Amino acid sequence: MSENLISVREEPISAQALKALVIRDAAGAIVTFEGTVRDHTGEQATEYLEYEAYDTMVVKVLREIAAAAKERWPLLEVAVHHRTGRLEVGEVSVAIAVSAEHRVAAFEGCRFIIDELKRAAPIWKKEVGPDGSEWVSGPTPGTDTRREKS
Is residue 33 part of a domain? Predict the structure, then answer.
């Protein structure tokens, strides 16, 4: 797996940049995802977020997630980048690009990757708003924090 396919960085990221990394001649579908900083969490206003990560472990976990996605679906390539540091409202915190021969595999693989990243990657965020700041708990080993959403 190419070093630039999986990374944790302070510099801005975008799914468009990742798309170029996963394009393959056999690809009939490329799915991208960008997670962005929103201006609230629940009823609390958010001014900005601060992300911290155990970088080398995050890269290891993301590579394992990408490999698991490739085992489960016939994906051609996967790229995942996550930001650290201070991010303002509207900035991209995570970007994912997945290529596959068919759209179903690309969509399902991309969703699996973001769900597993949220569950398992040692990345923590501090939400900062007008009422103060709060660290949002990251993954706890051996737990499944995924919830069904309607």
Answer: yes
Whole-angstrom distance, CA of residue 147 vs CA of residue 55: 26
Q: pLDDT digits over 8-49, tens only?
A: 999 999 999 999 999 999 999 999 999 999 999 989 999 999
Residue 146: pLDDT over 90: no
In a domain, 113, yes or no: yes
State the Cα–Cα distance between residues 114 and 125, nearest whole angstrom.
Answer: 16
- Within 13-74, strands assigned E span 29-36, 40-41, 44-45, 48-53
User: Residue 2: its pLDDT value, please?
Assistant: 62
If you average pLDDT over residues 68-95, what whole number do you get? 98
Domain that holds residue 85: 3-131
pTM given for the model: 0.89
Phi, psi angles (nearest 5°) of residue 111: -65, -45
CATH number of the domain at 123, please: 3.90.1170.40
- How many domains does the chain divide into? 1
Contact 6, 80 (CB under 8 A): yes
